[in-house]
Amino acid sequence: MSLLSPPLEAFWAVVRKGTVQDASYILGITQTGVTQRIRSLEKQLQTTLFIRSRKGMKLTNEGEALLQFVKGSLEIEGMALSKIQKAAKDSITEVYISGPPSILRSRVIPNLLPLKSRFPLLRFRFNLSDTTDNVESLKSGQCDFAVLEPHQVTREMDSKILKAERYCLYGPASWKRRLLPDILKTEPIIAHHSSDLMTYNLLSKYKLKSVTQSERHYANSTDAIRLMISRGLGYAALSEDYAADFVKSGDLIKLSSQHVYDLKLSLCWYPRVNRPDYIQAILKSLA
């Protein structure tokens, strides 16, 4: 933890590591983020702090003067933090986790709620989102953890591979006696938005996409999609874990047990210098 402002923290990281790339690793932000903070600081001070070269970042005279200020601030900070951190042990801590609704509902939230008895001052904030906003929320620091697909994970992030989420095709109970080829040919797909390819990905795996209708229904909520399916408006690929209770209650039926799609997911976060016990417990609870 540092009490330095983000721009000064970036300056100190670049001084210690010598390059923007290495500084980004210890700060847990992108290289662009580090550069933007340095430029913001230079603009604020109306001076140049580094000479940039292929060998790294070298301090200017003005940069060396600022370095002395930072070192002095860190000495004072060290004494203050020992008192502040002692009080912080008795304060509320919020953890923000963002990810697809299906996996948060079926696995993340149920697995983390038991931690409340061990960490009574821990507060969770869950953002259920099926959009690319999850990765942007993590990169911007809005959330602490995000559940992402492999292609969204960058090398600056730490990650833990989660059990793949299995998707199957679901329709309303009234379609129980209908054959899958007839459903694909005559009924529309229901998706979250125009770029939602989950059902298409499943069908493409079995070379069935070409027989489907091109026009789809859209709803930006998994619960809304489930309701639309149960009312006979169409079909969709849903997480097997999410759909299980609705199949049991008779709202939905699985259209095929042979056609499945396993979505690979990872729990991602940016590296921390220290991992509090509650962070370790969160990582251990999710698999």
Give me the oligomer status. single chain
Strand arrangement across the biggest beta sheet: 4-3-5-13-6
Low-confidence stretches: none
Number of helices: 12
Question: Over the alpha carbons, how many angstroms does the gyration radius reach?
Answer: 25 Å
Give a quick precis of the structure.
This is HTH lysR-type domain-containing protein. Residues 8-60 form the HTH lysR-type domain. The chain has helices at residues 6-17, 20-27, 31-45, 61-88, 101-112, 115-118, 133-139, 180-186, 198-205, 222-230, 240-249, 277-285; strands spanning 50-53, 56-59, 93-99, 122-128, 145-148, 158-161, 165-172, 190-191, 217-218, 236-239, 252-254, 260-263, 266-269.
Description of the structure:
By secondary structure, this protein is α/β, with parallel strands linked by helices. It has three domains: about 5-90, Arc Repressor Mutant, subunit A, CATH 1.10.10.10; about 95-155 and about 265-285, D-Maltodextrin-Binding Protein, domain 2; about 165-265, D-Maltodextrin-Binding Protein, domain 2 (3-Layer(aba) Sandwich), CATH 3.40.190. About 45% of the residues lie in helices and about 20% in strands. It contains twelve helices and 13 strands. The chain has helices at about 5-15, 20-25, 30-45, 60-90, 100-110, 115-120, 135-140, 180-185, 200-205, 220-230, 240-250, 275-285; strands at about 50-55, 55-60, 95-100, 120-130, 145-150, 160, 165-170, 190, 215-220, 235-240, 250-255, 260-265, 265-270. The strands form four sheets. A five-stranded mixed sheet has the order 4-3-5-13-6, with helices on both faces. Helix 2 packs across helix 3 (about 30-45). The longest helix has 28 residues, at about 60-90. Keywords: DNA-binding, Transcription, Transcription regulation. Belongs to the LysR transcriptional regulatory family. This is HTH lysR-type domain-containing protein. It comes from Pseudobdellovibrio exovorus JSS. GO terms for molecular function: DNA-binding transcription factor activity; transcription cis-regulatory region binding.
